[in-house]
Specification:
Blueprint: E1 10-13, H1 19-30, E2 34-38, H2 51-61, E3 66-69, H3 78-90, E4 95-98, H4 113-141, E5 144-149, H5 153-156, H6 162-182, E6 187-194, H7 207-212, H8 219-225, E7 236-240, E8 243-247, E9 250-251, H9 263-273, E10 279-280, H10 284-293
Parallel strand pairs: 1-2, 1-4, 2-3, 4-5, 5-6, 6-7
Antiparallel strand pairs: 7-8, 9-10
Length: 297
């Protein structure tokens, strides 16, 4: 069995002070990476130390190397600042884990514009800023591993998840685009869709699931994904409780539209389309040519 070897690599983990981010930071460091642990300081202890400081102490106590960063990812300057922190300390950036996010819920028609946009500012725009800043330095270097921590909420949506699902769905589309753009330059981007018990998810989670779906059981997937020998790119990986499932975006068969189309005919055509095997497509252009060239059912 191969073991991830991140010796000499420099990693950034946004939202790295708690939950999944903490587990990611600790596991990356345990496999040799130097880590910028980012977490905004909403709450500090009596010594003025925040979540990132405590994770850095854990890493250093175990013999690793790490520094703390306190930028709020909603700040437009945060992405560039995080990358500069890594370069200033160690001269490079090899791994970027875009993890910071919030998970407030609410019915769409009841949310205010401010509530909806605040979530997008952190989960989607914050993710894009950090990923862009990392891509800017990784492409010329000819190497990089970017992981966007998204959610199955972004694939499927659900009641009360409109803003959260929109932000995570946007991350999924962003990540697949980055994967296409960066591959030729040695920069691989993947998406991790975790099931884990954290401050965000523990409310309402049954005990049997909460005890099995720990953040620590997700971290090894992340670490293996950013190893130099991992060639996966543009993948959606659902993981938790010691399990892994690959996900994707698919389309079913094409059907011809009749001259007169009503609601009942439309429902029947959708049903007919789904009788064909699903096709996995790797980009919008490929999907277009597949659609235009396929023989209708």
């Amino acid at each position: 069995m191969s073991r991830p070897d991140l010796a000499g690599r420099v990693a950034i983990v946004s939202g790295g002070g708690k939950g999944l981010g903490r587990s990611f930071s600790l596991d990356l460091a345990a496999h040799g990476a130097k880590v910028v642990v980012n977490n905004r300081n909403r709450v500090v202890d009596d010594e003025g130390r925040g979540p990132a400081d405590h994770v850095v102490s854990e890493i250093r106590d175990a013999g690793g190397d790490a520094i703390a960063d306190y930028h709020d990812v909603a700040d437009p300057s945060s992405g560039a600042a995080l990358v500069q922190a890594a370069i200033g300390q160690w001269g490079r950036v090899d791994i970027c884990v875009v993890n910071a996010g919030i998970g407030t819920g609410g019915m769409f028609h009841k949310e205010t514009d401010e509530e909806f946009e605040a979530l997008l500012a952190i989960n989607l725009l914050g993710a894009a800023r950090l990923a862009r800043a990392a891509m800017i330095v990784m492409r010329p270097a000819g190497y990089g591993r970017i992981v966007l921590v998204a959610s199955t909420g972004g694939l499927y949506g659900d009641v009360g998840l409109s803003a959260y699902a929109a932000s995570k769905g946007g991350m999924i589309a962003l990540g697949r685009s980055l994967a296409a753009e960066g591959e030729r330059r040695g920069v691989l981007t993947n998406l991790l869709l975790p099931y884990a018990t954290t401050q965000m998810t523990e409310v309402g989670m049954a005990d049997e699931f909460a005890s099995a779906a720990t953040a620590e059981r997700v971290a090894p997937v992340l670490t293996a994904l950013v190893d130099q020998n991992c060639t996966l790119n543009g993948q959606l990986l659902v993981t938790g409780a010691g399990r892994l499932r690959s996900a994707s975006v698919v389309e079913w068969g094409s059907v011809l539209l009749p001259d007169d189309l009503g609601p009942h005919e439309l429902e029947e055509l959708v049903h007919q389309s789904k009788t064909a095997p699903p096709t996995e497509l790797n980009g919008a252009l490929e999907a277009f040519f597949n659609f235009m060239g396929e023989q209708p059912l």
